[in-house]
């Protein structure tokens, strides 16, 4: 090879090497966020590529507030034809091991650090609860169960059945799987059928009376897939996603007869304030997808809500609507612990019994023991996440949790072997409300659910506890736990010290059962309402009395769909 040829070869190799290094560096820098259109809020500027599509700085056809269960599929879908800005107050889930793996399920809920994927709140009822604070929303911190809404629910919501049936599969193809049924879930399945919760509907996404196995967003390796994964379907040329973008309020043009939403004010991770505006295109909108707590809170902080409440905090009234924040509901959950004489494989919800009385029976078992895990816990029922179900709600304090954490290290390992049977009350008649406590969007508002304030909810809880007692006594469960009476009594006595509730001894005493329901009520995180159709939004989810503003999330629901709402909230966004 001559000298000229050697130089050319050297230059070519150098160029290829530099190209490879640049490519690798680019991938490394974007790995945390996975997609190039996801950036930190501090990167927002007038030179933003997505912002300039309309020919005007920082303007978009759609601005979506809340990158959660509804917001992600909504943004991906709209970006096919329009410029979209999606603003999420939390970070990205992709490299967060507490979000990503089933074995760490409880840790993300127990994490109270500023970068946590969840934000704890305690309702005025005394029940600990959580809000998502991460791209992907509740799909990043839930138990993973996936099931569609019933046909009745879809009809009553007035949704287009054809569009619904096209939207569910779009989600399922990307993030949903059939679970590998854990032994505890098999025991529940057989126990449900033995006590007459039939027929067995096998594995199905559909909401059907009887016993079924639902879908899961955890894959065979225990890795979680979330609504954030649906952003892969977005158009990168038209979609911009900002994380750590805390929207402070919606801006309105109030010069016309009816106020019109025109933009939002948000702060980045450094506390710097920014503004983003809608384009002049007819039909451009701001869409709230902040969830049942965040959306009514954001409306009130922006001047839409009960006039007297807004004036307490010197918030300029854009629209007086006394229904904002009302009709809030949470599905009460009560559990019983079933000890075993050997370790049990960890499982979250896979099997469900659906009764016509609106009592749903589910189960969880085992606990995660990763190197980062809390030493001993009860998974979904961990006291670390406030599920102190032997302590009446008003006595569930931060100190009670600390005392539990300190004391449990002295408990025998056997006290933590076993699992739970859970009962959830569907469509609760008990209603609550949400009120502001200040104008800081980072703070939780005051939230009241009024669990069991309606006698029908309490009646159904008693029925559910009695049903769970029957299941525990079925041959299938007795065979699985392999406990004789003496061993069972010994394990129950140890379990009492572990702050977990057990099957009551006098289930024929209605009054004591009602008290048991009240004292052991916890949450399964399916709260909804606060922006009801017909009161806050119309049947197309446009906010009543203003232009250019919608709400697309569970705050519009009068009841929680299916046995878990995540499928329907994602479908709604799509």
Automatic annotation (TrEMBL):
**What GO terms are given for molecular function?**
flavin adenine dinucleotide binding; oxidoreductase activity, acting on CH-OH group of donors
Q: Name the residues that bind FAD.
A: 88-89, 134, 247, 525-526, 554, 565-566
Please give the superkingdom of this protein's source: Eukaryota
Q: Which cysteines are joined by disulfide bonds?
A: 461-517
Under the heading InterPro entries, the entry gives: FAD/NAD-bd_sf, GMC_Oxidoreductase-Related, GMC_OxRdtase, GMC_OxRdtase_N, GMC_OxRtase_C
- Coiled-coil ranges per the record? none
Q: Span of the secretion signal?
A: 1-26
Q: Which Gene3D superfamilies match?
A: 3.30.410.40, FAD/NAD(P)-binding domain
Q: Which cofactor does it need?
A: FAD
KW Disulfide bond (keyword) present: yes
Q: Which Pfam families match?
A: GMC_oxred_C (PF05199), GMC_oxred_N (PF00732)
Q: Give the stretches traversing the membrane.
A: none
**Limits of the Glucose-methanol-choline oxidoreductase N-terminal domain:** 132-155, 291-305
Which keywords does the record carry? Disulfide bond, FAD, Flavoprotein, Signal
| Entry's family note | Belongs to the GMC oxidoreductase family.
The name this protein carries in UniProt is: Glucose-methanol-choline oxidoreductase N-terminal domain-containing protein
Species assigned in the record: Vitis rotundifolia
């Amino acid at each position: 090879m001559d000298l000229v040829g050697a130089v050319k070869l050297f230059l070519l190799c150098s160029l290829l090497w530099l190209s490879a290094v640049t490519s690798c560096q680019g991938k490394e820098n974007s790995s945390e966020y996975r997609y190039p259109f996801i950036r930190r809020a501090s990167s927002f500027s007038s030179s933003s590529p997505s912002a300039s599509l309309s020919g005007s700085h920082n303007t978009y056809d759609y601005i979506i507030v809340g990158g959660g269960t509804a917001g992600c599929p909504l943004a991906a879908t709209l970006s096919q034809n329009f410029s979209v800005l999606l603003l999420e107050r939390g970070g990205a889930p992709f490299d967060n091991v507490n979000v990503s793996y089933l074995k760490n399920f409880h840790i993300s809920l127990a994490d109270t650090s500023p970068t946590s994927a969840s934000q704890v709140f305690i309702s005025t009822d005394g029940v600990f609860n959580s809000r998502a604070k991460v791209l992907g929303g509740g799909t990043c911190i839930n138990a993973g169960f996936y099931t569609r809404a019933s046909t009745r629910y879809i009809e009553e919501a007035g949704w287009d059945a054809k569009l619904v049936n096209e939207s569910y599969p779009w989600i399922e193809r990307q993030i949903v799987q059939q679970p590998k049924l854990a032994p505890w879930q098999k025991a529940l399945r057989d126990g449900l059928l033995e006590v007459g919760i039939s027929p067995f509907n096998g594995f199905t996404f559909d909401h059907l009376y009887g016993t079924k196995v639902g879908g899961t967003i955890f894959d065979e390796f225990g890795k979680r897939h979330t609504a954030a994964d649906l952003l892969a379907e977005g158009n990168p040329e038209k979609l911009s996603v900002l994380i750590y973008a805390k929207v402070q309020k919606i801006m309105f043009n109030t010069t016309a007869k009816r106020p019109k939403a025109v933009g939002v004010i948000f702060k980045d991770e450094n506390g710097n304030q920014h503004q983003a505006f809608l384009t002049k295109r007819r039909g451009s909108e701001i869409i709230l997808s902040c969830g049942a707590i965040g959306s009514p809170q954001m409306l009130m902080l922006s001047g839409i809500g009960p006039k007297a409440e807004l004036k307490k905090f010197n918030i300029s009234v854009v629209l007086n609507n006394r229904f904002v924040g009302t009709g809030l509901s949470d599905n009460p959950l009560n559990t019983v612990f079933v000890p075993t004489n050997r370790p049990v494989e960890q499982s979250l919800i896979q099997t469900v019994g659906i009764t016509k009385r609106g009592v749903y029976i589910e189960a969880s078992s085992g606990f995660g023991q990763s190197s980062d895990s809390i030493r001993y816990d009860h998974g979904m029922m961990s006291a670390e996440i406030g599920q102190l179900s032997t302590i009446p709600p008003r006595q569930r304090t931060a100190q009670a949790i600390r005392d539990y954490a300190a004391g449990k290290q002295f408990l025998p390992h056997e006290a933590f072997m076993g699992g739970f049977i859970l009962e959830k009350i569907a469509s609760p008649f008990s209603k609550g409300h949400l009120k502001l406590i200040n104008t800081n969007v980072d703070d939780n508002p005051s939230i009241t659910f009024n669990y069991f304030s309606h006698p029908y909810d309490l009646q159904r809880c008693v029925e559910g506890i009695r049903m769970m007692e029957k299941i525990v006594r079925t041959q299938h469960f007795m065979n699985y736990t392999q406990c004789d009476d003496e061993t069972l009594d010994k394990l129950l006595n140890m379990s009492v010290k572990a702050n977990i509730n057990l099957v009551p001894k006098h289930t024929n005493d209605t009054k004591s059962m009602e008290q048991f329901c009240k004292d052991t009520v916890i949450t399964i995180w399916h709260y909804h309402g606060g922006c009801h159709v017909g009161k806050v939004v119309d049947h197309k989810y446009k906010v009543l009395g203003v232009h250019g503003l919608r709400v697309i999330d569970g705050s519009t629901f009068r009841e929680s769909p299916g046995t878990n709402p995540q499928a329907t909230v994602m479908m709604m966004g799509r």
